[in-house]
């Protein structure tokens, strides 16, 4: 109990410090870049980062409180995207002092947007089977290969890249992790349109692209360990549990927001800003509220099977929230819960599938209708009289993705089985045989 009280007091002091800082620093007439410079260098943009890495060393749950406090004050929050979610904490864990002072600083101040260059056409679930190669040429690495499912690649300034630097080493040992400049000859990003009508993902072609030696993160051939750090942050961010409030502003040089007046993006005190398609698990958390309202509105709430599944959906969301609180309490006591990120990711996939099936049952035949642009959507809304229908059909079309991206459900179960429960790994010779001698994925 004493430890809990101590943690609560520390959190209260931190939030009081934040309120005082906001009162003295928030200025709606600043540009977005100027405001993010203040927010990021003070440690409030990424409070969960270590204190020496532009953070405050706060627990994730406290970080959510800080984000909510900034929104409640009426100020604009941190830069949105994979830089803050994945790249910054990975570089803080594995990078050099110089990399933290340059790469992480540009992330927390919104100067650079990031994407993730991990998956390949033949190396998705079996990520260590990647074939993109990096060859040293003087003070630079020359990169050749293809990546796929590159979220936000079209607006990225830098990419988190893993490539094979030693094909004669065993499969997991010859991989290195780089920060690659996306604005250079030899990097081509092509959008992949999804069945939702959006093009969040891309395929990326790397042809003699170059990376300076000092942009190698974590050391030569240590990329698998660094990549697993990134994946751990990704799964934690995608899992079920409580979300946070905040204004979504895309960072970086491509999005074009840095020179705009920051006050024009400030949140309204009486609103909770909606998150876009890319926001993973938080995007559809608490969708049970919407579905319950729809069921009440069209009378399907009297169907006992629909009522039962609404309760199931509510229960799954509550379990995700409680698991987040449980993890927070455990970490506050100096412990951890192995596999919780993987469990949360699996839980989010289950929530999405149930949301899909239940939503389509509630709206009935209207669930066969979906529009792919704003004009058609307005026509469809008028025809159906149901402005909430796009939320149902969009979720149904999107529901297939969460069980695949960020590591498939099967991969999550393997990780839990092998790393948490201690079950034996599947037999194979990829631990010792050079990668160049292994059978390659199709």
Helix/strand layout:
Layout: H1 2-25, H2 32-41, H3 60-73, H4 82-94, H5 97-108, E1 114-117, E2 133-137, E3 140-148, E4 158-164, E5 175-181, E6 187-192, E7 201-212, E8 216-217, H6 223-238, H7 252-255, H8 287-298, H9 304-332, H10 340-363, H11 374-384, H12 389-398, H13 409-420
Parallel strand pairs: 1-4
Antiparallel strand pairs: 2-3, 3-7, 4-5, 5-8, 6-7
Helix pairs in contact: 1-3, 4-5, 4-6, 6-10, 8-9, 8-10, 9-10, 10-12, 10-13
Brief overview:
The chain has 442 residues and is of the alpha+beta class. The protein has 13 helices and eight strands. It has three domains: 2-111 and 246-255, Butyryl-Coa Dehydrogenase, subunit A, domain 1, CATH 1.10.540; 114-235, Butyryl-CoA Dehydrogenase, subunit A, domain 2 (Beta Barrel); 272-420, Up-down Bundle (Butyryl-CoA Dehydrogenase, subunit A, domain 3).
């Amino acid at each position: 109990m004493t430890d809990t009280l101590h943690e609560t007091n520390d959190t209260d002091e931190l939030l009081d410090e934040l309120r005082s800082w906001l009162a003295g620093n928030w200025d709606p007439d600043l540009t977005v870049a100027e405001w993010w410079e203040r927010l990021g260098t003070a440690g409030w943009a990424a409070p969960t980062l270590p204190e020496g890495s532009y953070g405050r060393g706060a627990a994730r749950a406290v970080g959510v409180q800080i984000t909510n406090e900034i929104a409640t004050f009426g100020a604009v929050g941190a830069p949105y995207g994979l830089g803050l979610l994945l790249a910054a904490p990975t570089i803080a864990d594995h990078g050099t002092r110089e990399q933290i002072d340059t790469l992480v600083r540009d992330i927390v101040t919104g100067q650079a947007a990031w994407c993730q260059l991990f998956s390949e056409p033949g190396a998705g679930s079996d990520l260590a089977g990647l074939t993109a190669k990096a060859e040293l040429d003087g003070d630079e690495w020359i990169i050749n290969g293809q990546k796929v499912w590159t979220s936000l690649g079209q607006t990225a300034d830098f990419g988190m890249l893993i490539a094979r630097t030693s094909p004669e080493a065993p499969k997991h040992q010859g991989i290195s992790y780089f920060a690659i400049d996306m604005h250079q000859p030899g990097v081509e990003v092509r959008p992949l349109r999804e069945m939702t009508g959006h093009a969040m993902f891309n395929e990326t072609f790397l042809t003699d692209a170059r990376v300076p030696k000092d942009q190698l993160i974590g050391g030569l051939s240590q990329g698998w360990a660094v990549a697993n750090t990134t994946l751990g942050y990704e799964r934690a961010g995608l899992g079920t549990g409580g979300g946070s409030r905040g204004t979504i502003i895309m960072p970086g040089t491509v999005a074009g927001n840095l020179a705009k007046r920051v006050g024009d993006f400030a949140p309204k005190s009486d609103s909770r800003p909606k998150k876009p398609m890319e926001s993973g698990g938080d995007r559809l958390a608490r969708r049970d509220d919407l579905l319950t309202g729809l069921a009440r509105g069209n009378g399907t709430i009297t169907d006992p099977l629909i009522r039962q599944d609404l309760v199931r959906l509510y229960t799954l969301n509550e379990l995700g929230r409680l698991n987040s609180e449980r993890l927070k309490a455990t970490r506050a006591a100096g412990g951890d819960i192995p596999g919780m990120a993987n469990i949360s990711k699996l839980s989010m996939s289950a929530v999405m599938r149930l949301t899909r099936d239940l939503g389509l049952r509630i709206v009935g035949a209207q669930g066969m209708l979906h529009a792919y642009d704003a004009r058609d959507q307005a026509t469809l809304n008028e025809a159906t009289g149901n402005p909430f229908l796009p939320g149902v059909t969009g979720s149904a079309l999107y529901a297939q993705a969460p069980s695949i991206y960020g590591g498939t459900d099967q991969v999550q179960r393997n990780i839990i089985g092998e790393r948490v429960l201690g079950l034996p790994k599947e037999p194979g010779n990829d631990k010792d045989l050079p990668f160049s001698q292994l059978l390659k994925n199709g």
